[in-house]
């Protein structure tokens, strides 16, 4: 028998699930066997792993016998329904939904930031929200050096963040509009996405922010072990396929120059520094798509301040990879 781990992928036919399968393959994760799980609608479909076409099985609470690691990406309600069954059968669950992220008993992990938290798991490890992951990969190295006090963010989030059907919606709407056809009503996203953008991701809360915007604050504090961090965020859906971008205004306790920041980030794990605007080099979602690293650039001193404690930076990262599937597989690698 091949040595390695028995792995299950829950939500195998979704955009993130398929990316998880491909990432396990590309990174040569030591897989002894893999079980592809999804809803009854997907049973009979086949997905490729290591050159083989493998059948998709129906997810039930009996699906986890003999499984060592279960990668979940089927939404919060599925995670709440089935994670306990997986843990009871001896699997460690790495969950990509919002179900367990803010549970104080469950580690929320970005391997470049807090890998040590993996050790605290009691059967479940949470994968953070995609925009939070991309933000902390870029910001944590600067925080470690200069102590981040406050962050103001505007995100430019790709269709992939709303799933495979939203990506299809962007493609179809663009095709219709360019072909002069009447536009079909949006079904997945709250507004038309082709040639448009809208500041509405997830549900609105009483304070006027959305759930997605508050995740940047709450998850950022937990991952970076920084309970006093102040964050204000506006999350915007943009007509981009699969990489999120973020404009971040950062305020530190200590002075920091753009030169220092570039030096810190050039040595940071998971970061590619691309900061030469004179030669049109800066982060863009088309360059981040398909990449493991987050691209950081447009680093400049905040000119609205009288001191040197503020920076502005721009970040792009692949939402399906570092924002989801890759981060989960990296957690599995630590395990």
Key traits:
Rossmann fold; 335 residues; globular; 8 helices; six-stranded mixed beta sheet; Dihydrodipicolinate Reductase, domain 2; 2 domains; alpha/beta
Explain the overall architecture.
The protein is an alpha/beta fold. The chain has two domains: 5-128 and 325-334, Rossmann fold, CATH 3.40.50; 132-319, Dihydrodipicolinate Reductase, domain 2, CATH 3.30.360.10. Helix content is 29%, strand content 25%. The chain has eight helices and 13 strands. It has helices at 15-26, 76-88, 130-146, 164-178, 211-223, 258-266, 285-288, 321-334; strands at residues 5-10, 31-38, 46-49, 52-58, 69-72, 92-95, 124-126, 148-157, 230-237, 243-252, 271-273, 294-301, 310-318. It has a seven-stranded mixed sheet with strand order 3-4-2-1-5-6-7, sandwiched between helices. A hairpin with a 2-residue loop joins strand 3 (46-49) and strand 4. Helix 1 crosses helix 8, helix 3 (130-146) crosses helix 5 and helix 3 (130-146) crosses helix 8. The longest helix is centred in the middle third of the chain and has 17 residues, at 130-146. The chain is globular, with a radius of gyration of 20 Å. The mean pLDDT is 96.
């Amino acid at each position: 028998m091949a040595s390695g781990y028995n792995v299950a992928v829950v939500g195998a036919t979704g955009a993130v699930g398929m990316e998880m399968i491909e990432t396990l393959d590309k990174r040569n994760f030591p897989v002894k066997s893999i079980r592809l799980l999804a809803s009854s609608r997907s049973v009979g479909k086949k997905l490729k792993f290591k050159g083989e076409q493998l059948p998709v099985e129906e997810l039930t609470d009996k699906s986890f016998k003999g499984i060592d690691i279960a990668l979940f990406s089927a939404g919060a309600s599925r995670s709440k329904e089935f994670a306990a069954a997986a843990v009871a059968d001896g699997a460690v669950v790495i969950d990509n939904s919002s179900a367990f992220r803010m549970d104080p008993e469950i580690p929320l992990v970005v391997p470049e930031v807090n890998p040590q938290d993996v050790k605290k798991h009691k059967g479940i490890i949470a994968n953070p929200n995609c925009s939070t992951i991309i933000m902390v990969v870029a910001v944590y190295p600067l925080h470690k050096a200069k102590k981040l006090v406050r962050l103001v963010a505007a995100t430019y989030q790709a269709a992939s963040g709303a799933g495979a059907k939203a990506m299809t919606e962007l493609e179809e709407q663009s095709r219709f509009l360019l072909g002069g056809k009447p536009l079909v009503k949006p079904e997945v996203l709250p507004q038309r996405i082709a040639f448009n953008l809208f500041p509405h991701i997830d549900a609105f809360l009483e304070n006027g922010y959305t759930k997605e915007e508050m995740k940047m604050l709450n998850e950022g504090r937990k991952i970076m072990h920084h309970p006093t961090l102040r964050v204000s965020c506006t999350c915007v859906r943009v007509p981009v396929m699969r990489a999120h971008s973020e404009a971040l205004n950062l305020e530190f306790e200590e002075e920091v120059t753009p030169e220092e920041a570039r030096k810190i980030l050039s040595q940071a794990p998971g970061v590619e520094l691309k900061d030469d605007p004179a030669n049109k080099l800066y982060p863009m979602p088309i360059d981040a798509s398909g990449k493991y690293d987050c691209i950081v650039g447009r680093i400049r001193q905040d000119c609205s301040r009288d001191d040197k404690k503020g920076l502005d930076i721009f970040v792009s990262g692949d939402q399906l990879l570092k924002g989801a599937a890759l981060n989960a597989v990296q957690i599995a690698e630590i395990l």
